[in-house]
Amino acid sequence: MASETLTHDAPPARSRRREDIPDRFKWNLIDIFESWDAWQVAYAQLEQGIARYATLKGTLAQGPDKLLDAFRLSEDLGQLAYRVWYFPSLQYDTDQRDNALNARRQQVQILFARMNQAESWFNPELLQIPLDTVRDWIRREPALQLYTFAIENLYRQQEHVLDDAGERLMSLSSRLASAPNDAYWALSTADAKFPDVTLSSGETVTVSYGQYRAILATRREQSDREKAFVAIHGTYQASLNTYASLYTGVCQRDWFQARARGYKTTLEAALHGDNIPTSVVENLIGTTRAGAAPLRRYHRLRRRVLNVPSYHVYDFSIPLVTFEKKYQYDDVLDWIVDAAAPLGPEYQARMRAGFSNRWIDVYENEGKRSGAYSAPVYGTHPYMLLNYTDTLDDVFTTAHEMGHSMHTILSHQSQPFIYSNYTIFVAEVPSTLSEALLLEYMLARSTDPAERIVLLQHAIDNITGTFYTQVLFADYELRAHRLAEEDKPITADILTDTYTQLLKEYYDDAVDLHPLSGITWARIPHFFNSPYYVYQYATCFASAARLAKEIMAGGDVARDARDRYLALLRAGGNDYPMEQLRKAGVDLSLPDTVLAVVDQLDDLVTRLERELDRR
Ligand SMILES: [Zn+2]
């Protein structure tokens, strides 16, 4: 099934200049605004709306009509804001050297700050009104019913809001709260001195984090990988007591905030926003730790295939076979669409429309932002930024971002604006599932033994990296925070021992522990800038694994699972994420859901073993 666009001009080999890239590989932003003049008009409209919103302050107590006015105006502004923001912002990302675009983008950011301020009266003013009164209004004014979930959720969070004096103290303390993270960035980037190392090839490189990752993934000489590992961790080791003291600051801050707001633990405080029970994280950690056997099996297999005298964490990323196949973007689009067949023809048709209507900015060019994303431009359609370089990773990144975009399309189309946004807790489910479908599709068709090995390794590394490693991280965060909660000391030695202990519990003797591997905790920015965040990668992964298994099972099971899954994508943010997933048939508080990932890894390792034995 080739799409008609394929007969046009060929893709650029390695185009650096944007103007040399054919239009069909560049996104078409005319769908957002026809011109800068049209953008300017919308910008002015937004500005006026913000001023009007501020005038509603003090009116809510007058009754249901006023509350409805405020909700509706806020929704109008929100919708407009997406298009006003993304028009300059997406263009800027294709050339970040463009100062005029940057200025327009900043102009919108300044307007957004004013918008936040203009809307800040709403929550406290609504919360002044007793919930029973508001519930009565909802009964009397049917148009308000739409907002029930938003209102109930706001009052639910009220439980941990303090009185005026308390809130004032909390807001005064918020300036201090970011100090450990700010200092972490300064110490680990601006002030860090990464050393030069000379590799076996004779080249001398400075081991920044990017360089470290590249060496681990490409250098077949183990001694090169070890050198890079020692170089980067040595940099953290040199300031380890300072890192420990900053991390103590993080744990103590979280514990202060949790206690001040009346939570029993830091975990409870972190999960309350999305209404996630703490048992989800505890179940995730407990079940995964008990299910580490396939993880160890995989690393024992790697040790054997790589044939190294001792096997370390710096040997995790080197591919088991050399494989240089290039994947043409046009071919890949067809595969991604075909791979989505279990989700139905309508789903596939929408996907194909996205691929052929210039929603995607495909290739790299000078000044373009790195990485990949899907931008949910409400009122238009999602746009995707890629930096496609024909590698297998790029193939899966394309499927991943398309998964996000399909989620956006279905949720924007099915939900009113107020619930059109999905939470991070479910966001990575469709992207992961989209990759899983593509993997099975490619495995079923690939006849090249090396490619099959690389595909299986890709899938396995996804599980070890996105699931096991993130659970180990969550486990570490929980143990470290518990030290603070139990009034125990937190020092560099204690944190390093905690991390080393975790490595032993997860990997057992499958991996040899380098003396520096225990200080990895100092290198992970998430620990310092967003505690209790990474577990969501693992829960999304487990949810996607569970759903993918059912969707690919065939028969009635698959049809039923597909319907539940598409309903999840259409649900946007209309309920608490745990509820949404439960309706989709995924209960994250049960060990079974997590065990699905353990089983999946076990199966993939067996398949990899078989492929390797055949060689
Ligand atoms: Zn993603």
Using the alpha-carbon principal axes, give the shape.
globular
Number of strands: 5
Estimated radius of gyration: 26 Å
What is the subunit organization of this protein?
single chain
Residue-averaged pLDDT, rounded?
Answer: 93
Helix proportion of residues, in percent?
55-70%
Judged by helices, strands and strand pairing, the structural class is mainly alpha
Total number of helices:
25
Q: Write the H/E string, N to C.
A: HHHHHHHHEEHHHHHHHHEEEHHHHHHHHH
Largest sheet, in brief, is: 3 strands, mixed
Query: Largest sheet, order of strands side by side?
Result: 3-5-4
Distance between the termini: 33 Å
Strand content: under 5%
Listed once per kind, the bound small molecules are:
zinc ion
Return residue spans where pLDDT drops below 50 for at least 5 consecutive residues. 1-8
Core attributes:
mainly alpha; 3-stranded mixed beta sheet; two-stranded antiparallel sheet; 25 helices; disordered N terminus; binds zinc ion
Blueprint of the fold:
Blueprint: H1 36-54, H2 64-94, H3 99-119, H4 122-127, H5 131-140, H6 148-158, H7 164-177, H8 179-190, E1 196-198, E2 204-206, H9 209-218, H10 222-238, H11 240-260, H12 266-272, H13 278-290, H14 293-306, H15 329-339, H16 345-356, E3 360-361, E4 373-376, E5 382-385, H17 392-414, H18 424-445, H19 449-485, H20 492-507, H21 525-529, H22 535-551, H23 555-570, H24 577-583, H25 591-614
Parallel strand pairs: 3-5
Antiparallel strand pairs: 1-2, 4-5
Helix pairs in contact: 1-2, 1-3, 2-3, 8-11, 9-10, 11-12, 11-19, 13-19, 13-25, 14-25, 15-16, 15-18, 17-18, 18-19, 18-22, 19-20, 19-22, 19-25, 22-25
The chain binds zinc ion.
